[in-house]
Design brief:
heterodimer; A: alpha+beta; Alpha-Beta Plaits; two-stranded antiparallel sheet; 7 strands; B: alpha+beta; Cytochrome-c3 Hydrogenase, chain B; three-stranded antiparallel β-sheet; 15 helices; globular
């Protein structure tokens, strides 16, 4: 009784081993099922979805114009204090003082890519970019000023 | 009381497992008292990944605090966010559009499958089978791609906002999910063939780490861990939220309460989740994906509680509002913590080699335990 059980268990174990080996054999001979991507080598062909959140960037037109009015809605929406908008007062053509963005400071090292700043922005000035390779040697390089030097507010954006 | 690492007077050995141990899947530190090979006591030590999410939430607005819950149980981030969004909606008495409800459930069930699939691979790896891990990641990758396309992130989506979801689903969503359903249906029998039917796996798990129904209830075990012991604790059935009361699915309840039973419950749950997705994917109603909300949310004074069924069990959000811009207090009831507390009871008297199998079957996610 004991012996029959002993041997039947061994037979069962060998059977289930063969089952597993059959699957190994299947994948060994069916190369189309391989899904591994050779990541650093396939950078040229790598396509990320357009919604992928990599970092916050400010869109600029060809005339070096952005849409940021310096309303600090994004700064208030950010849960981590990632964004700091430094504003200045500009005198426009009619001689009126108007608030404008001086420096849009973005701390990538604090950002959790929660997308709340983009949702909060009333003028669609910022968006998420698909870049994801953010490693640098010095942390200070991750603090970025998003508005380009000498850029202006786009005409008609309030 | 923390005992010294070493040998006791009775000749028992006290050793550390973790915090850096490949089988604990995170920084879980267990101090184990051993008598020969038999485990006498397991003492979990927490605090290695404490980020004080509850305290942090008190200084964040009602839109902002949700993102942090993705970092608790990162494998069911969607479902955690759902609970938080529901708590705020309860306070604001906000009606969530039908389309948003369906998207939420769809995403939640996809997350559940992704979580269980990862668990399946990790559990098999804990027991010594390495290949299932790669099979699991193949299917999980498909779900991650769906998430990436629709939500913008692979794990920490922050897709649920008070009033609905952040964006509408991607135009490719429908096709991708259909592809996933077909693929997953084809591959699930392979999972069973590789692991469920394997003699070695059965010998390692059957009758190991039995948790009785009474103990499961008294330790507050929920999710597949509780259900394997026979407790009907599926929040989707017991206290339906969202549109779960209108869906056709079964609550999987095991009887044995051992490691194998916990394994089977999760395997069956994947099929049930797939069944829910199949019901919904062709019936996503048209309409808004987000209710109109004010720019600044102010939850009226009061206490609000919402609970959901994550991949690990009963997740609760207790929100106290004083009527201000930020919550007065937030308390999370995380399933991992209660499930871990039953570990000591379950492992006592078992062999040290089975500890890893039992821990794997509990499906512990450490940031969820220690938040």
């Amino acid at each position: 009784m004991f012996l029959t059980r002993y041997f039947s268990e061994i037979a069962e174990a060998v059977g289930s081993l063969l089952k597993g080996m059959r699957m190994t054999g299947y994948y060994f001979t069916h190369h189309k099922e391989i899904i591994t991507q050779q990541y650093p080598d396939n950078r040229a062909t790598l396509v990320l979805p357009e919604r992928f959140r990599g970092e916050v960037v400010m869109t600029h037109t060809d005339n070096n114009e952005h849409r940021c009015t310096g309303c600090t809605a994004c700064e208030l929406a950010c849960p981590n204090g990632t964004i700091k908008v430094v504003t200045k007062f500009e005198v426009n053509a009619e001689g009126k003082k108007k608030k404008a963005v001086d420096k849009f400071v973005y701390h990538l090292e604090l950002c959790t890519m929660c997308n709340l700043c983009i949702e909060a922005c009333p003028t669609d000035a910022i968006r998420m970019a698909q870049t994801f390779e953010h490693s640098v040697y010095d942390r200070s390089q991750l603090t970025r000023i998003l508005n380009k030097p000498d850029s202006k507010l786009q005409e008609g954006v309030e | 009381m923390v005992e010294e690492i070493g040998t006791t007077d009775k000749g028992e050995l006290i050793i550390n497992v973790g915090p850096q141990h490949p089988a604990t899947h995170g920084v879980l530190h267990l101090v184990i008292t051993l008598d020969g090979e038999t485990v006498r006591k397991v003492e979990p030590h927490l605090g290695y990944i404490h980020r004080s999410i509850e305290k942090m939430s008190e200084s964040l607005s009602y839109r902002q605090f949700i993102y942090a819950t993705s970092r608790m149980d990162y494998l069911s981030a969607h479902i955690n966010n759902h609970a938080c969004a529901m708590a705020v909606e309860k306070g604001l008495q906000l009606e969530v559009p039908e389309r948003a409800q369906v998207i939420r459930v769809l995403m939640g069930e996809l997350t559940r499958i992704a979580s269980h699939v990862l668990w399946w691979g990790a559990m098999a790896m804990d027991i010594g089978a390495f290949t299932p891990f790669f099979h699991a990641f193949r299917e999980r990758e498909m779900i991650n791609d769906i998430m990436e396309e629709s939500c913008g992130a692979r794990l920490t989506m922050n897709y649920m906002v008070p009033g609905g979801v952040m964006y509408d689903i991607h135009p490719n969503f429908h096709r991708r999910v259909k592809e996933f359903i077909a693929q997953f249906k084809r591959k699930l029998p392979e999972y069973d063939e590789l692991v469920t039917g394997n003699t070695i796996f059965r010998a390692r798990t059957r009758g190991v780490g039995v948790l009785s129904k009474e103990d499961a209830i008294s330790y507050g075990c929920s999710g597949p861990t509780g259900r394997a012991s026979g407790v009907d604790c599926d929040i989707r059935k017991v206290q339906p939220y969202g549109i779960y009361d209108r869906l056709d699915f079964q609550q999987i309840i095991g009887t044995e309460g051992d490691t194998y039973s916990r394994y089977l419950v999760r395997m069956q749950e994947m099929r049930q989740s797939l069944h829910i997705i199949e019901q919904l994917i062709d019936n996503i109603p048209e309409g808004d994906f987000q209710a109109k909300t004010k720019a600044v949310l102010k939850v009226p004074k009061g206490e609000y509680y919402s609970r959901v069924e994550t991949a690990r069990g009963d997740f609760g959000v207790y929100l106290v509002s004083e009527g201000g811009l930020t919550p007065y207090r937030i308390k999370y009831r995380s399933p991992g913590f209660s499930n871990l507390s039953a570990l000591d009871h379950t492992v006592r008297g078992q062999k040290i080699g089975d500890l890893v199998a039992i821990m794997g079957s509990f499906d512990l996610v450490i940031p969820d335990i220690d938040r």
